[in-house]
Amino acid sequence: MSEDFIISEEGKKLEEFEQRIKSGDIIEPKDWMPERYRKQLIRMMSQHAHSEYVGMLPEGNWITRAPSLRRKMILLAKVQDEAGHGLYIYSAAETLGAERGELYQQLLNGTAKYSSIFNYPTLSWADMGVIGWFVDGAAIVNQTMLAKCSYGPYARAMVRICKEENFHKKQGYEIVGTLANGTLRQKEMIQDAVNRWWWQSLMMFGPPDKDSPNSAELMRWKVKLKSNDELRQRFVDLTVPQAEAVNLTLPDPDLKFDEKTGHWDYGKINWDEFWNVVKGNGPMNKERIRARREAHENGTWVREAAIAYSAKHKRG
Ligand SMILES: [Fe+2]
Ligand SMILES: [Fe+2]
Question: How many A from CA of 50 to the centre of ligand 2?
């Protein structure tokens, strides 16, 4: 078979694939897909799964200090949900031929990324409210889009995850409302948490479109349906009225409603800080990886027992 023939065959497949994407078809694991589509999806999905996993740490830190049994039960359930989200997404990545153990090793050895927001510390109980409101709120905006993405297993995982994220956001906003209507000290505590988490939450959507090299391709293949800046704007538009409803101030003097566009304009994001944290220099980067490594080592006997159990069953 000549090389020209192979190249034209590949070209034809690519054309058919792009046609399928254009007509709104959903791509399933056994369908032909360009290697680059597979790679980009594995990269995105593993980063997403790692974020769910690492995301358990800042809130897990407050389970033993929750102010009531009700709050403790809710927070415990929420953190467990995040572990489940990680598992769904690792499973979805496996349908693309990725190996879960390998993906996890990349997290532990620092070669894979996860959301930078989790590299900040949780300093007070009010952070539990604001994380649910902002961080899970931002996750909903992003994941509602991903629930309509072109890769079937990822899209389906997102449908269920989004339902759970809505509960996470509501529990956070309920804590926020309670503290905002509480004593003066509670009000100060919640405003302080808002001040510390607002800009970091805007950074969760990733760099501005002009500095986001993968975005155009991901959008052409409908892995992403909206750009980073569009999603960020949606989050700001949704959150400003929610802050007003509980009399809290978002720490941005440039926030202004634009009558013409119908959107809230916002101030300049400090991207130097973002890149610095991505490079590993955030306040909690080292601690987060240390904690995940420790959990992985402590879980060795569980993995070994599971393998031995399944081998025993195979023997019958
Ligand atoms: Fe989640
Ligand atoms: Fe969540």
Answer: 13
| CA–centroid distance, residue 183 to ligand 2 (Å) | 28
Q: Is the full-model pTM beyond 0.85? A: yes
Ligand 2 centroid, distance to 290 Cα (angstroms):
22
Ligand number, closest to the Cα atom of 59: 2
Q: DSSP string spanning 90-139?
A: HHHHHTTT--HHHHHHHHHTT-S---GGGGS---STHHHHHIIIIIHHHH
Mean predicted confidence (pLDDT) in 16-41: 96
Q: What spacing in Å lies between the alpha carbon of 80 and ligand 1's midpoint?
A: 9
Establish how many alpha carbons lie within 13 A of residue 242's alpha carbon, considering only the half-sphere containing its beta carbon. Answer: 17
Tell me what the mean pLDDT of segment 108-118 comes to. 94
Q: What confidence tier does 5 reach under pLDDT thresholds 50, 70, 90?
A: low
Which ligand minimizes its atom distance to the CA of 137? 2
Calculate how far, in angstroms, residue 190's C-alpha sits from the geometric centre of ligand 2: 20
Name every residue whose Cβ is closer than 8 Å to that of residue 286 and which is 6 or more positions away in sequence.
280
